[in-house]
Specification:
heterodimer; A: mainly beta; Double Stranded RNA Binding Domain; six-stranded antiparallel beta barrel; four-stranded antiparallel β-sheet; 12 strands; B: 150 residues; alpha+beta; globular
């Protein structure tokens, strides 16, 4: 079985439990994903599956990709991603994987997505720098301040927080709890927020470093 | 958010009365207490507490809707905000209908004593018709149930 599925963020909501506790949730439409290509030790040096999500009309797919789909004999998709495969599982091209096959309630998952783009932002918004005084003749309102020391070291250290592009980059949020799995509607309800806008594509996988299990 | 409506529907109550801003309501809230029963034993006990006051705000949509009830307790203004569809809110009963001209009654916060009163609406055509229709629907449902049992 594949260990990662592609999904689409539908938006956020909240759910109640029987005692009235409200859980904020992000609703994802995850899968069904179709296996389009298999990678194995012989040809690629490792095992993996390429999965497709969100069917696309064949005439809208780019020519090279359409040949790829033709070879697989599957439908055509908007998104293709590579997913790791569990070592002992049987899998073949054309297999459909649904949410309920991979995730269960209470499990921890990681969500990989592209964050909302914020454009070119200054240090105050991008890194949370404090701003200077606005009055008493100050001209240091939203300036980045000093970027380093003096003749020694004579350079700006790498990684110095400066203005620049904020958002619109790949981000992984780890250890999100699965609140609900709706097999009928292919929905996954996760506690809290995930990167990206509603309608954006995300990848969901079982958590790589789940928190240690609590002692009973 | 429209495409999540079906999800939220599942968490919504469909037996809510038609209460509006300015109405005086009784809200039944479930409270779970841990009571000591004998030596070291505890038991969870549930009881219903009633909070009475004026509805000053309704906010949000779908299953995220909340409402705020304000009342004066011992000379001090107390406001409680409830998630409308929370299972802890067991029931809402309209005691008096209020005649108000705005959607949020925040102005009540600046007032004390007699000025906090909201004029009563004695006659609300649309709402009475609505309640009547709901009552009739319940009666129909009950009738249908008894006939199917026979």
């Amino acid at each position: 079985m594949v260990k990662l599925l592609i999904g689409k963020k539908l938006g956020m909501s909240q759910v109640f439990d029987t005692t009235g506790v409200v859980t904020p949730v992000t609703v994802l439409e995850v899968g069904p994903c179709t296996v389009v290509q298999l990678k194995d030790e012989v040809t690629d040096g490792y095992r993996a599956a390429q999965i497709g999500f969100d069917p696309q009309k064949p005439q809208r797919v780019k020519k090279p990709q359409s040949g790829h789909y033709k070879k697989a004999g599957t439908g055509t998709f908007r998104v293709l991603r590579e997913a790791p495969v569990a070592d002992d599982s049987e899998i073949s091209v054309g297999d459909e994987v649904a949410v309920a096959d991979v995730f269960e309630v209470g499990a921890y998952v990681d969500v990989i997505g592209t964050t909302k783009g914020r454009g070119f932002q200054g240090t105050v918004r991008r890194w949370g720098f404090s701003r200077g005084p606005e009055s008493h003749g100050s001209k240091n309102v939203r300036e980045p301040g000093s970027t380093g020391m003096h003749t020694y070291p004579g350079r700006v250290f790498k990684g110095k927080k400066m203005p620049g592009q904020m958002g619109n980059r790949r981000k992984t949020v780890k250890n999100i709890v699965v609140v609900q799995v709706d097999a009928d509607r292919n929905r996954l309800l996760l506690r809290g927020a995930v990167p990206g806008p509603a309608g954006g594509y995300v990848c969901v996988r079982a958590a790589k470093t789940p928190p240690p299990a609590k002692k009973a | 958010m429209r495409r999540l409506d079906d999800l939220e529907q599942g968490y919504m109550k469909n037996d809510l009365p038609d209460f509006r801003i300015g109405d005086t309501v009784d809200v039944s809230v479930s409270i779970v207490e841990t009571v000591e029963v004998g030596r070291g034993k505890t038991e969870e006990k549930e009881r219903i507490q009633i909070f009475n006051g004026t509805v000053i705000r309704r906010k949000g949509s779908g299953n995220r809707e909340t409402f705020t009830v304000r009342r004066i307790v011992a000379g001090e203004g107390v406001e409680r905000t409830f998630p409308l569809h929370s299972p802890k809110v067991r029931g809402i009963e309209v005691k008096r209908m209020g005649r108000v001209r705005r959607a949020k009654l925040y102005y009540l916060r600046d007032r004390t004593g007699k000025a906090t009163r909201v004029k009563e609406k004695i006659w609300d055509k649309t709402r009475m018709a609505y309640e009547k229709e709901k009552k009739a629907a319940r009666a129909r449902a009950a009738a249908a149930e008894t006939s199917s049992e026979e």
